[in-house]
Amino acid sequence: MKKILITGGAGFIGSAVIRQLIMETNDVVINVDKLTYAGNLQSLKSVADSSRYYFECVDICNAEAMARIFHEHQPDAVMHLAAETHVDRSIAGPATFMQTNIIGTYTLLEVVREYWGKLSPGCKSNFRFHHVSTDEVYGSLGATGFFREDTAYQPNSPYSASKASSDHLVRAWHHTFGLPVVTTNCSNNYGPYHFPEKLIPLMILNARNGKPLPVYGKGDNIRDWLYVDDHARALRLVLDRGRIGEVYNIGGGNEKTNLEVVYLICTIMDEICPQGAPHASLITYVQDRPGHDHRYAIDASKIAHELGWKPQETFESGLRKTVGWYWANTDWVDAVISGEYQTWIQKNYGDRRLS
Ligand code: NAD
Ligand code: DAU
Asked: What is the pTM for the complete model shown?
């Protein structure tokens, strides 16, 4: 039994990790989340009553509150997922990205260093700080090649630059202070509980509501998709068995153009809801994202060979599960699209978006 402090546990990936940990292990989980527009406790309803689950509504930038949480809960490990994560928002307003992703990670590292420094020798060497990051730090690929762990950093958006900064901070705290860290860089996730401003859930919900499906540019940008539960399993494996100071790339081996993804969603929607068919007629080409990275693709051979990880879902099976989940869980959808999200959407996109 381990005590794992998870930052950003009310978000898309963090909540998937927590659901797995509570349902499949005896570990204790302390979820530290500020509950921004992207954090939703409804995503944790199935595990919230567990005696092994604790929630702390705290900003990771608040050093005092974070120190209090470490003191009270005495965790054996940290999985750091809290971040601002949407590239479009980072273009419209980078400030919160710099604050949470850079200053927040710095603040957390300092709190952890203080806490870890006072642990007994045994606890000290078993402690882990797992930094969860993105493949976007590597920039954009041409038609060929893959991101490997030794690919040079070339972040292109304010979001990816802030995540790259946080990766460098984590590396430095290991190199200089000896903090036992592991870092993972993952490709695009999809699945249930994904906030509907990202491509896949946005397209599913707009298709359901007969609204335009806004494809940026020509729709030929390529992403490497991974089902969120496969990512969560990979993160748990790296926390348990990853080598200290190492980086592991995680990806699904599912390269698709955005247009391919949207057409596949439309095909599934046509089966579920024939009265709306053909949903592909809703596809609308809109202005491209500034600085839009063309292609991401991960070489996941290191985590496969060292730790024996491989994804369980194919893109088709994962996407079918995902569309089915959004179709069945309208209460979750209604809850997340209320409040601040609505205001932001109106201001930045007008009614081109989900409403
Ligand atoms: P998300 O946007 O769904 O959730 C982020 C969570 O962090 C939210 O619950 C939010 O309330 C919380 N948070 C934000 N600022 C905070 C702060 N200052 N203090 C405390 N909590 C705060 O994000 P996600 O998609 O689940 O991503 C989780 C992590 O995984 C991020 O670090 C992201 O960079 C990384 N990642 C995401 C993907 C992806 O495809 N979604 C892929 C690779 C890596
Ligand atoms: O690669 C990992 C990253 O994947 C994570 O680090 C980020 O947190 C996560 O948001 C995601 O970033 P992307 O920018 O790739 O995801 P998004 O869903 O915003 O966009 C996916 C692709 O779809 C991208 O090429 C832009 C395009 N797109 C997106 C939206 C929201 C559209 O064509 N139309 C849209 O409405």
From this structure: 0.97
